[in-house]
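From the shared-data thread, chain only:
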Amino acid sequence: MQLEEKSQNAIKALYQKYENNPYMLDKLTNYIVEQLPTVMANIEKTNAQRIQRTEELTQEQNAFISDFFSGQQYFYAPGTEYYFTYNGKNFANISEDEIVHNILSNISRERTLLSWKQKTKSTILKKIKENIVTSCIPDSATIQNVISSICPSVYLTKTEAKYFLTVLGDNILKKTESFTLIHLLPHSIKQWINQLNVACQLWFGTNLNQSFKYKYHQDHVYSTLRLLSPVGAQHSGWNYSHLLDLLCVACHYSNRYGGSENYLTTYSNDDTLVKNVRFLLHKTPNAIAEDFVQTMLVPSNTGQINWKNMQFLWKLYLNNVRLPNILSLSQLKTGLQSMEFSVEDDCYTGYTSKYLPVVYDFLQFWDTTMTEDCTEIELEIGELAVLFKQWNRGTGLKETEIVNILQHFHPEIDIDQQKYIYKWKCNLWDKAADIETALIYIDTNGLSVYDCYQKYCNIAEKKALKVSKLYFEKFMATR
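Structure, as tokens:
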């Protein structure tokens, strides 16, 4: 039924109802003819004013919202109900209360949206919740800062750094790669990955380490293994804002490149990276053992290498080619079955290695010049390297090589921060006596420890070794 017909039927019904009541008929006619047109005109005018006001407020609201988002981008993490801001350089966590305060303060200051204050607040919060932080697109400045923070300190090249970040993003976003692949990392980087994971759980409510393993297991299938071989372990001095930037860039790379495997094969354009990451794809344990023999050993009629030394050479091989431990000891032994092995002497015969003589020299140096001494404050690995080179007539070792030798052949020795050895003394250099001798010529009255150290350095200027400022301070504190 049409509106006009419905109205006519309603009026007819009223006339029929009051057909025997002249008074009501007169009132009905007067209302329809005289009052109703005015009422309808007023309603029309009020509605037009309401529509105009709504349009004006909508325009004001759109302008306000646009202006609110122009200075800052806002994002949301549904898993934790956390909000984040982004200024084009850094991401930061922000509370909902702070966002609401900013919205209402701006509305109150501008006053044009006072009647729509709560509606505008709800609209803005709804828009923010549609911006999922793991789908963000960071600016170039943020991306370059993140890459610079891990390249070359963790990874030597930008493509390595980008691949690592894409793997992180896959794990955060729970992509297929995070469940079907195993990414092998050295144990040295585990603490930093754990720090990243704590931050990821806090802000995004998800894990990022499900594909990471720090030790090879015999049941791992080589075709599913990907090697992430950093050159260093990231420092722990990052604050949470740096970590948040890194996590957001990681998600961006995973989304942009469609996953780590796609980045590797389609976007990296780095054959060396592909070869290194997929080193194990078509390898077998025996083939790796064979490469180890060809790389590290030399045939010799009189040569012998005992099992402990062979394990050290294996570790050295892994370090040289930047690989994690990809064979168990039983697999390594199986791979060396072609070599003659003396069970009685626990050694392989018919081979030697060019890497072992300097190792033997260092072990002899350690046995003949080093003694435990509870009074010795500390000995630095760098100092040990200088002393060994002097003792060995100019043939030395890198500090990392010394650390590796000590960790393998003397695991009972605690090496702090890969740099300090405590309670061990070298008879080639008495550090405490060195300082005491210098102090004979220094009037320490009225001098700070720093000034005393400067004078010590002047006296010991021509010596090959001088104690560090830290050692000097510790010595003076106990003197």
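The first helix runs from residue 3 to 17.
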